[in-house]
Amino acid sequence: MTTTTSTTPPRAAAGPATTRNGLRRVGVLARAELRLLVRNRTALFNALALPPLTMALFTAAGGVGDAADDVVGPVLLNVLTLMSLTFVVYYNLTVAYVARREELVLKRYLVGESSRAEILAGAAVPAVVVALAQAVLGVVAVSVFLEPPAFVNPLLMVLAVVGGSVMLTALAAATSGLSRTVESAQLTTLPLLFVALPFAGIFGGPGSSSGVFDTISTFTPLRPITDLMMLGASGIDGDGQALTFVETLAAARVPLGVLIVWTFVGVLAARRWMRWEPRR
Amino acid sequence: MTSEPIVHVRGARRRYGTFEAVRGVDLDVHRGELVALLGTNGAGKTSFVELVEGLAPSDGGTVRVLGHDPYRERRQIVGSLGIMLQSAGFSGDLTVIETARTWAGTLSRSRPVDVVLDAVNLVHRADVRVASLSGGEKRRLDLALATMGDPEVLFLDEPTTGLDPESRRATWRLVQGLLAAGTTVLLTTHYLEEAEELADRIAIMQAGRIVRSGSVADIVAAEPARVELVVRNAAGRPVVPTVGDLPSLEGVVGVPEIDRVGRLRLRTTSLQDDLFTLLQWADARQLRLDDLDARSASLEQAFLAMDGAGSGAHTDDTTEVAA
């Protein structure tokens, strides 16, 4: 004990340093979560191997179809991004939130100085970093091995990965609240993985889908990620038109709006369903 | 910051649906003091302490810690609090030192991690995964995290449950060290010995209310002493006296109990006088008082007496008020 006086005044609130402290706490929590990810082989496999394997399988199964050469890269890049966002961010994170809750770790952090948002973000950072890294590696890979995509609007690609991560983090927090155990998270994550994914627009390049199915799928949670990736990487819109940088911005309004709405829904759902300690 | 209590609670209430777990609690804890909250399981200790820790809003009354509402103004005081919950977990795949460093990293001010681990005797286990720790070691790690930030106010919810006697004493020494350095502590326990060892004041909680509070001496003094003996004649045969046979005893509480073999039990508020009277009475009749046992009340006895009163109070509120 270094304190010798018994008349220390109460410590002042952090004040202007709050944000910096908040970031520091997220960093510390993220480092612990990264260690846990590295020590959990199942989660590590899901994070590192599943997305590239899926991309390889997709190619081998002829998923690219008869897409034009300059679209093959963006299509594969999009498959990789969707897989890493759904499996690394959404699925792994749902499981991680459930595990931390059931082992009473969330409750412990909650009594400390970290806010709820910081605790959730801390756990999410490693997953989001892995997803981002895979997207970057994917960009490098398709540029080296295939006809390099046009990358008309890289900003939209960043928005697809970062915005998708935020949305799926919120949805993961909500889904964790509906999962009693780590095992039941395998079921509760199914709706997004197996209902939303087919609507994500992976199958078939741009312009190949139309009609009611396409209209419906435009408003599903994963579709804006595809739309933004394709717009950003190839500059080709849903009708097969090649767009300029400025035109891609205009075309991105709908998918961005859909992404924002789903993020908002995710945050509301997380506030409604997320639980911080096991049900007694 | 002069005479304002560090913890100030008036009429605190907490409900779960229709069940009211905390039913109007008043409690003050002053700077540098340790107050022990005693009660049986289900008395509402944890439900109440969670209000003071700011983990739940109170459903009535006033709760202030360091002058703030601990739930609504938690941000302003959380850096000054150390909280050891009854049940908080660890990630089993992190080592002791990783767990401690992570926690220290989330604090606005932290003592050196190795010093804190040393204080709970966990340095030699620093590189062990938490999943491999014993229950007692986990509890000590819990205590290490709660004291890591050099808190001004420390809340300990059953800190020594599951510890072996040696670790329990080590924990007491640690808490006493913190008290000596000026830390204010609110502790819950159901070990009476722990309360006697550490507490400046005790509050006994029952069915959501504090039914008695004061120093150990105050609480014990209010409880009658006990006398127990078996009456035999000069030949050593048991004699079964009736209550009417007994001398008049000044301080006796209730009616003395006499069973079939002549064992007499009574409770008295003036042990010395009544014992003297009994001895004189036996001497004059040439009776022997075997197994004579006369003792002042202990905290345990005071506690059990209250618990007996309390178990009736679950169904009838008015008797509880009387208790």
Automatic annotation (TrEMBL), chain A:
Membrane topology: Multi-pass membrane protein
Record bears the keyword Transmembrane helix: yes
InterPro entries linked to this entry: ABC-2_transporter, ABC2_TM
Membrane-crossing segments per the record: 43-63, 75-98, 119-145, 151-175, 187-205, 250-270
Subcellular location as annotated: Membrane
Entry keyword set: Membrane, Transmembrane, Transmembrane helix
Residue ranges of domain ABC-2 type transporter transmembrane in the record: 26-230
Main location as per UniProt: membrane
Name used for this protein in its record: ABC transporter permease
Originating organism: Isoptericola peretonis
TrEMBL record, chain B:
Main location: membrane
Subcellular location: Cell membrane
Cited PANTHER family: ABC TRANSPORTER ATP-BINDING PROTEIN
PROSITE patterns per UniProt: ABC_TRANSPORTER_1, ABC_TRANSPORTER_2
Name recorded for this polypeptide: ABC transporter ATP-binding protein
ABC transporter domain segment(s): 7-232
UniProt keyword terms in alphabetical order: Antibiotic resistance, ATP-binding, Nucleotide-binding, Transport
SUPFAM superfamilies linked to this entry: P-loop containing nucleoside triphosphate hydrolases
One annotated GO molecular function: ATP binding
Coiled-coil segments on the chain, per record: none
Database matches in SMART domains: AAA
Transport in keyword set: yes
Keyword Disulfide bond found: no
Membrane topology, from the record: Peripheral membrane protein
